[in-house]
Amino acid sequence: MRELARRISAARRLTIVTGAGVSAASGVPTFRGPQGLWKSFRPEDLATPGAFARDPQLVWEWYDWRRKLIDGCQPNAAHHAIAAWSRRPGFALVTQNVDGLHERAGTQHVVRYHGSIWNLRCATPCEAGSREWEDRTVPLPCVPPRCPHCGGLARPGVVWFGEGIPEEAARAAQAATACDVFLSVGTSSVVYPAAGLLVEAKRHGAFTAEINPESTAAAGIVDVAIAMTAEDALPQLHRFVESE
Ligand code: OAD
């Protein structure tokens, strides 16, 4: 922890990648593991373009349920520690989380790698509806919701399996791999291309670290693996950095 704090303190460019584990202490379920969403639901029924084409009602009921759940959650100590770092020059946060809790904690310049559950866009897509709009209404008054421009089906503004990363987010994340310290927090590191960012950062010569209470696919690659929860490790790390 001390070594990582020294590295962060000296870094001109610090990049953090987060996954579902960062929001676990806020009450947002993770995807994998014993309590994970993918234990009770099949991703191919709910989080693919094919699933949406087959049954938009079912897909939207699942997203409406998650939106309600997330709406009742607050950012935790891990989000707040990251928010404090986001005011440093040369900081970048790339999150796979669609819950918006980093933004609610006040984190600046969030790269939403997998989109946002609070954004919608036209599924057709019509020209006006291809630009996303924010809708924080919970529950949604009409499921499935409609595009306000053409009346067709709207879809969640998230990245599903089999889809590409939004162009701007992909570019920003790629640029952020050119950093001095790269920290991966609360992700199982099995979903690509997000998991590849760590390898890319290593290639650029970054000091790499992971915070996760469980061993992950990235554990053997990083310079330091801290087996702690994000909500315990990050505030502690933040204090160490401040005292450097
Ligand atoms: P996962 O559910 O795959 O992994 C969550 C990770 O968080 C696990 O490695 C846990 O050990 C760890 N964890 C649990 N509690 C923690 C805590 N309190 N502090 C720190 N870590 C903790 O979630 P992601 O890696 O984010 O994509 O999943 C990546 C993508 O797969 C998601 O964005 C989503 C999913 O399917 C799509 O839906 C396209």
Determine the CATH topology of the largest domain: Rossmann fold
Ends: how far apart? 12 Å
At the first level of CATH, the class of the largest domain is Alpha Beta
Largest sheet: 6 strands, parallel
Q: Please give the count of helices.
A: 10
Count every beta strand, where a strand is a DSSP E run of 2 or more residues: 9
The parts where pLDDT drops under 50 for at least 5 residues are none
Class computed from helices, strands and strand pairing: alpha/beta
* H/E element sequence: HEHHHHHEHEEEEHEHEEH
For the record, the CATH architecture of the largest domain stands as 3-Layer(aba) Sandwich
Query: Over the alpha carbons, how many angstroms does the gyration radius reach?
Result: 18 Å
The average pLDDT value, as a whole number, equals 96
CATH superfamily of the largest domain: TPP-binding domain
The set of bound ligands, ions and cofactors reads: 2'-O-acetyl adenosine-5-diphosphoribose
- Beta-strand content estimate: 15-25%
Description:
By secondary structure, the chain is of the alpha/beta class. It has 2 domains: 1-26 and 75-114 and 165-244, 3-Layer(aba) Sandwich (Rossmann fold), CATH 3.40.50; 29-72 and 117-158, 2-Layer Sandwich (SIR2/SIRT2 'Small Domain'). 34% of the residues lie in helices and 17% in strands. It contains 10 helices and 9 strands. The strands form 2 sheets. A 6-stranded parallel β-sheet has the order 3-2-1-7-8-9, sandwiched between helices. A 3-stranded antiparallel β-sheet has the order 5-4-6, with helices on one face. Helix 9 links the parallel strand 7 and strand 8. Helix 1 packs across helix 10 (230-242). The protein is elongated, with a radius of gyration of 18 Å. The structure holds 2'-O-acetyl adenosine-5-diphosphoribose (OAD). Residues 19-21, 24-25, 30-33, 36, 43, 47, 96, 114, 159-161, 186-188, 191, 212-214, 216, 229-231 line the site of 2'-O-acetyl adenosine-5-diphosphoribose.
